[in-house]
């Protein structure tokens, strides 16, 4: 099986990148010949290091730019069995090349951006979304082709994340992980994290260390605001930066509580930590018995109205729930781990994706032999 992924992104790192990285590596492990067309940068370097074929492309709007990308694919002289792309400028060369060569094509949606799906939906053999709640967004706009949708969530790397670490009540300090890409489009998440920092400074009965796991254009401003919030306290700020693979896993394990969106929330849950989920669009809150299903449905904050549907005092209440009775940190960490291990094993999810690929490819082959 020869697979082509086409992916465009603004930020040099993030959940989209990890989704593509996870799928590409799994498909290669299953024997597929995998190619990824993307911008030069950190993700391309990681894929190259794992033996994935990469095609460096500068995605820009315009006929000449699309033509250049298509020519790059033609020059490979590879008979691709399927193309899988993600929203953005990548759709133009992906759909054009698929039409030229009658190749099955699949698209994945990660959030509320529908990317003019109505203009190219008829070309798609399958539309994948990362949660049931995300699925509703394009369906409300398109109002047709409902049968082509499949929900395949993000997941944790089960070869990397193996053993959770639960909270030790005898610890003299509490580490709270703030996990986010620190860019303008994540401002709602950063605002919630700043509220959280301004609240934990009132907990003086135990030393609290805030571990900032992430990077982005707003990093310096964000760190300054967090440090100012903890002025004149015994609490500390530790900047970890953007981490991947084993370093990221270890950073989760080193925390006692995680505040994070989407995939990061899932990885934190598998690590055995209580997770306060907040995405770029919605505050879900501390994952417990009354909201864990909604968190999964919503991709842990992927759809919503930001502060318009945020109840003031929510993050403070969730932090107090854990810090005022620290035995709950361990109990909810065990609860989180159970959910993540049951529903979000990336190998199992990628196997579902592979089986969908096989069905779509075989269907096209049968159609071509009519």
Number of helices: 13
Mean of pLDDT: 96
Strand tally is 13
Subunit arrangement of the protein: single chain
Structural class: alpha/beta
H/E element sequence: EHEHEHEHEEHEEHEHEHEHEEHHHH
Estimate the helix proportion, in percent.
40-55%
Description:
The protein is an alpha/beta fold. The protein has 13 helices and 13 strands. The protein has helices spanning 15-29, 42-49, 63-76, 91-101, 132-142, 187-200, 219-229, 245-253, 262-270, 292-297, 314-323, 327-343, 346-368; strands at 2-6, 33-38, 53-56, 82-85, 105-109, 126-129, 149-151, 173-179, 207-213, 236-241, 257-260, 275-278, 283-286. The protein has a 7-stranded parallel beta sheet with strand order 3-2-1-4-5-6-7, with helices on both faces. Strands 10-9-8-11-12-13 form a 6-stranded mixed beta sheet, sandwiched between helices. Strand 6 (126-129), helix 5 and strand 7 form a beta-alpha-beta unit. It is elongated and about 75 Å long. The two termini are 22 Å apart. The mean pLDDT is 96.
Could you give a quick summary of the protein structure above?
By secondary structure, the chain is α/β, with parallel strands linked by helices.
Write the layout of secondary structure elements.
Layout: E1 2-6, H1 15-29, E2 33-38, H2 42-49, E3 53-56, H3 63-76, E4 82-85, H4 91-101, E5 105-109, E6 126-129, H5 132-142, E7 149-151, E8 173-179, H6 187-200, E9 207-213, H7 219-229, E10 236-241, H8 245-253, E11 257-260, H9 262-270, E12 275-278, E13 283-286, H10 292-297, H11 314-323, H12 327-343, H13 346-368
Parallel strand pairs: 1-2, 1-4, 2-3, 4-5, 5-6, 6-7, 8-9, 8-11, 9-10, 11-12
Antiparallel strand pairs: 12-13
Helix pairs in contact: 1-13, 3-4, 6-7, 6-11, 9-12
């Amino acid at each position: 099986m020869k697979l082509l992924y086409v992916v465009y992104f603004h930020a040099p790192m993030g959940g989209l990148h990890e989704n593509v990285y996870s799928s590409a590596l799994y498909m290669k492990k299953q024997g597929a010949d995998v190619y990824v067309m993307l911008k030069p940068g950190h993700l391309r370097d990681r894929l190259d290091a794992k033996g994935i074929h990469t095609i460096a492309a500068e995605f820009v709007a315009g006929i000449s730019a699309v033509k250049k990308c298509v020519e790059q694919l033609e020059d490979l002289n590879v008979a691709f069995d399927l193309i899988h792309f993600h929203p953005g400028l990548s759709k133009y060369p992906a759909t054009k090349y698929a039409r030229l060569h009658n190749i099955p094509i699949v698209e994945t949606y990660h959030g509320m951006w529908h990317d003019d799906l109505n203009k190219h939906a008829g070309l798609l053999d399958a539309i994948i979304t990362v949660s049931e709640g995300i699925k509703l967004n394009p369906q409300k706009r398109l109002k047709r082709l409902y049968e082509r949708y499949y929900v395949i969530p993000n997941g944790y790397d089960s070869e990397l994340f193996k053993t959770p670490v639960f909270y030790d009540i005898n610890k003299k300090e509490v580490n709270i992980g703030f996990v986010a890409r620190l860019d303008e489009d994540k401002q709602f998440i950063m605002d919630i994290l700043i509220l959280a920092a301004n609240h934990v400074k009132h907990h003086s009965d135990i030393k609290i260390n805030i571990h900032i796991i992430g990077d982005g254009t707003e990093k310096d401003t964000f760190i300054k605001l967090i440090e100012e919030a903890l002025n004149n306290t015994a609490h500390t700020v530790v900047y970890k930066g953007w981490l991947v693979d084993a370093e990221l896993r270890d950073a989760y394990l080193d925390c006692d509580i995680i505040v994070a969106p989407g995939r990061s929330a899932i990885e934190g849950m598998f690590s055995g930590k209580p997770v306060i989920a907040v995405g770029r669009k919605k505050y879900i809150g501390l994952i417990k018995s009354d909201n864990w299903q909604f968190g999964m449905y919503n991709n842990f904050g992927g759809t919503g109205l930001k502060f318009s549907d945020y109840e003031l005092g929510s993050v403070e209440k969730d932090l107090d729930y854990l810090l005022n009775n620290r035995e709950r940190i361990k109990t909810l960490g065990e609860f989180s781990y159970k959910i993540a291990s049951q529903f979000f094993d990336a190998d199992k999810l990628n196997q579902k994706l592979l089986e969908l690929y096989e069905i779509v490819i075989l269907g096209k082959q049968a159609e071509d032999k009519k």
